[in-house]
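A favour, since you know our structure tokens better than I do. It will help me judge whether the discrete encoding reads sensibly. The space below this message is yours for that.
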Amino acid sequence: MYITDKVAQVAYTFPAPWNYTATNVVLPNGDYDPWHALSAAHCADMYPPYSDEPAGLNATRQIIIREVGYYLNNLQSSTTMSPFTAASTISGGCSDVDTDCQNFKDNCKNTLYKPFMCKYCKQTCNFCFDQQCSSFNFMEIVHKN
């Protein structure tokens, strides 16, 4: 009953915009904060580059910019396809989803980026048969399939 009451309270306080007509909306849910281990804020990737920022932060910004740019450039599209398309496929169905995996190959060895690399660069990182990859639920923050 507690949860039901809280949901009702939120719905009353913040009524739904019934005339809402936006499309191609990406809402990060914050279930996993990849920057906490690097002593950075969970929104660090939304700020301009700065000196002494954690390694990999700029690469993440570029992924976000590319993703947002894709949707902004395809406003008239009636489909919601992702800019991440299969770059290559090997036998057994293992493939890279992101076309820039070679540029981020150094992140394959970084445990902080392993969830991302498992999802988007599985072939490049040789994670095709890595059992740990199936347990990650990381990139739903950035991109919901």
User: Anything to note?
Assistant: Residues 2-138 form one domain.
